Structure formats: C-alpha cells, structure tokens
Amino acid sequence: FRDRKLIAHIIPFENRRQILVTHDVTESERIDMMRRDFIANASHELRTPLTVINGFLEIASMQADLDNQTRNMHLKLMTEQGERMQRLVEDMLTLTRLESVDYPPRPERINMLGLLEQILQEAHALSAGKHTITLECTGPDIRGSNDEIRSALTNLVTNAIRYTPENGHIKISWIDTEQGPKFAVQDDGIGISTEHISRLTERFYRVDKSRSRETQGTGLGLAIVKHVLLRHKANLLIESTPDVGSKFCVQFPGTIVSA
Ligand code: ADP
C-alpha cells in the first residue's frame, strides 16, 4: 500500500466492537487531478484569444475615427483569434466524445486508397507547394470509424507539414505487415528530442508553444490521435531526431482488415 492513498472509516458494530473500512482513492484522485489540469489548461488557452479580442473591441469603442487600414487589420486579427477559439472548442468536444463510453466507434469498411488520396490533396493545399509530398498505398481496406481514422491520420500528416520547413519532404505510406496494416508519415523537419517523445500525446503538451501557435496548433491533435487509436486497438510509434526529422507510425491489429 506504500504508493496508494487510502481513506479509513471506523464503523461501530455489535457488542462494542468496531469495523475498519478502507477505500483506495488513488485512482479517483489521479483522475480528479487530470480533470483539474485540463480545465486550467483549457481556460488558459481560451483566455489569450479572448483578451486580444476584448482589447481590440475596447479600442474600437474608444476611437471612433480609426482609419480604414487600422480597422481592417484589427478585424483580421480578431477573426484569427476567433477561429483559434473555435478550433480549440471543437478539439475539446472531439476529445470528450472520443473518451465517452456512450459513443463507441461504429465500424464500417474504410476505402483506404480513397481516404489517403483525399488526405494527400488536403496536404498539398496546406503545404501550398512548399513541400514534396508522396503517397505509397499498397495496404488493405480496414474496418473502423471512417471519421475517426480520417481525423487521426489527417492530424499526423498536418503535423508533418507544420513542423517541416519549406522544401522539406513528407512521405506517407500505407502497407501491409505481418502484424497487420501499418500507416506511416515521415518528414525531414525540425524533429523532437527524446525527452519529449513519451509526453507528446498528453493534452496541451507542446515542445515549443510559440511555434505550435504560429502554425495554428491547439496542442490537442496527438491526444485525439491517441484516443482514436485506443478505440481501434492500434499503436502509435514515434521515432524522431532533432534537425533530422520524425516518423509517426500507426500499427493496426491484423484483425481490423476488412473482408
Ligand atoms: P499541436 O497542435 O501543438 O501541433 P499536437 O498534439 O498535434 O499539438 O502535437 C504536440 C506537439 O508535438 C507539437 O506541439 C510539436 O511540438 C510536436 N510534434 C508533433 N508532430 C511533430 C512533427 N512531425 N515534427 C516535430 N514535432 C512534432
């Protein structure tokens, strides 16, 4: 019991005897702490854009004679902050839904080639010609939730683009292995040092906060990936070297293949 937290109650029993009842509250305290951390982080993340928007609204209400150029710049900055709040709230709702036992994934046949070709198109649009992106797709179709798998794989590809400087290379692959089908996205971007790797799927964990914000990150992407993969019994493997690049692999179980 050395690492456990126990709460004991003494209950009177017959003939002046007493019963000692103990409850192990270690797990519920850990969940409580995680919940408090999440609320604190989420509030902090929402407060920053709100402060910016409120600041510009105050300027607008005090200075009615703002020139058009300044006014348009303020409107643009407020719109960006509003969009940031929207992304955050959407990611928080997605995470809540993924964690809920009331919404188990609805398995359907996923056309992996079709899905990956769409993800590739979106990747080209996001990269705007600044990266070379390739796709190799020889793996089978699988059974799972199309929306959830799409969102997990899109998150991994989007990160590869966002954390790879211009002229970088991004290789997406979907192949079959002895253990089951495997997705991988490899980049030659900024990389991640070893001490961060095991913490990347924690909510709001970022190696470099300012870079994540600049690239429109919410800090929840890999937490969403982790939960989708848990629901599909798949594993995430991360290999990375700073200044060389990263490889994010998703190993699906052999049983997930669609007949
Ligand atoms: P964010 O919205 O900040 O990108 P994520 O949960 O998607 O949040 O990722 C968490 C952190 O992991 C990022 O802030 C970044 O530091 C790091 N990261 C994720 N993918 C990569 C990558 N391909 N290359 C380098 N760093 C990455």
From TrEMBL:
Domain Histidine kinase intervals: 41-256
Using the UniProt record, name the top-level EC class of this enzyme in a single word: transferase
Q: Sum up the protein's function in the record's words.
A: Member of the two-component regulatory system PhoR/PhoB involved in the phosphate regulon genes expression. PhoR may function as a membrane-associated protein kinase that phosphorylates PhoB in response to environmental signals.
Keyword list (alphabetical) reads: ATP-binding, Cell membrane, Kinase, Membrane, Nucleotide-binding, Phosphate transport, Phosphoprotein, Transferase, Transmembrane, Transmembrane helix, Transport, Two-component regulatory system
Known catalytic reactions: ATP + protein L-histidine = ADP + protein N-phospho-L-histidine
What does the UniProt entry say about where the protein is found?
A: Cell membrane
Task: Give GO terms: molecular function aspect only.
Answer: kinase activity
This chain's protein is named: Phosphate regulon sensor protein PhoR
Range of the intact protein held here: 172 to 430 of 430
Q: Which domain of life is it from?
A: Bacteria
- Per the record's keyword annotation, is Nucleotide-binding included, yes or no? yes
EC number(s) reported in the record: 2.7.13.3
Look up keyword GTP-binding and say if it applies: no
Name the principal localization, coarsely classed.
Answer: membrane
